[in-house]
Every structure is written in C-alpha cells, then in structure tokens.
C-alpha cells in the first residue's frame, strides 16, 4: 500500500473501532472524519423500516442519519474485519448486528462500506448490508 492508502486505512480502522467500542453511542468521531459536503448513501435508500437511509449530501444530513439510526436501532456488535485500499478508495468488509428498539427483532448481516477519501477525510460513503433482513426486523 502507498503511504496515503495506509493512512486512510488507519484513520478508518480507528473510526470503526470507536464506533464498535461505543456501541454506536456517539457519531461525533465519524462527523470529525468527513468533509462538509460529504456524499453519504445506503443500500437501504430510504426504504420501508429504513427511512433514515436516504442519500445525504452534507454533514447535517449525515448527523440526522446517525441520530435516527440510534433512535431506531441498538447496536449489538460491529466487526470491521478487513480493509482494502486502492488510491483514494477504502473498502471495509465486516458484520453488523443490530436490534430494532420498537420490535426487539435482530439483524445480523454481512456489511461492506465503500469510502472515498481526500486529505484524510471522507468525501463519499456507500454502505451495503442485508436490507431485506433489516426491513423484516423493523416490521411489526
């Protein structure tokens, strides 16, 4: 890996570790890692039971995403197992395990995030997870 790729992986590895250790209790560190006009997307794309996952185009939108995520879901476990870097892109491969606060149903899904970095900051993010499992867990 190049020096930039190594730095980006180190920054993100730390971010994911903090997220996991806090049980998603604070998005403050994630917010400090992104540019103001970040482009944040989710495979959930605002679908049923995942309305908060619509695309965001700035930090305020991402903060709203994190607030709704925390209000609706409780983090059980988050494992960022592998990081692959090429140029300004980093892919995180892992698992996430959440419990819906309203239904008590759980989602334990493989997770892949694709991030684009510039000067050590996140400029774009796209997450992939089992959206059908999440929708079912959110349904009454």
Shape: globular
Please state the CA-atom Rg, rounded to the nearest Å. 14 Å
Average pLDDT level? 95
Q: State the share of residues found in helices, binned by percent.
A: 25-40%
Q: Major beta sheet, specifics?
A: 5 strands, mixed
Number of strands: 5
Approximately what portion of the residues adopt beta-strand conformation?
A: 35-45%
Secondary structural class? alpha+beta
In brief, what are we looking at here?
With 140 residues, this protein is an alpha+beta fold.
Description:
The protein has 140 residues and is of the alpha+beta class. It is built from 4 helices and 5 strands. It has a 5-stranded mixed β-sheet with strand order 1-5-4-3-2. The radius of gyration is 14 Å and the shape is globular. The model has no long low-confidence stretch (mean pLDDT 95).
Task: Throw out a few tags for this protein.
140 residues; 40% strand; alpha+beta; 4 helices
Strand and helix map with partners:
Elements: H1 3-21, H2 28-32, E1 34-42, H3 59-72, E2 73-86, E3 89-100, E4 106-118, E5 121-128, H4 131-138
Parallel strand pairs: 1-5
Antiparallel strand pairs: 2-3, 3-4, 4-5
């Amino acid at each position: 890996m190049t020096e930039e790729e190594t730095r980006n992986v180190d920054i993100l590895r730390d971010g994911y570790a903090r997220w996991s250790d806090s049980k998603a209790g604070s998005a403050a560190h994630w917010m400090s890692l992104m540019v103001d006009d970040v482009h944040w997307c989710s495979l959930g794309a605002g679908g049923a039971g995942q309305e908060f996952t619509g695309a965001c185009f700035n930090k305020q939108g991402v903060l709203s995403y994190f607030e709704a995520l925390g209000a609706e879901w409780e983090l059980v476990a988050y494992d960022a197992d592998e990081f692959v870097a090429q140029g300004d892109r980093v892919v995180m491969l892992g698992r996430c395990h959440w419990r819906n606060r309203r239904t008590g149903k759980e989602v334990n899904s493989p997770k892949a995030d694709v991030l684009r970095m510039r000067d050590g900051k996140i400029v774009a993010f796209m997450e992939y997870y089992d959206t059908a499992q999440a929708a079912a867990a959110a349904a009454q």
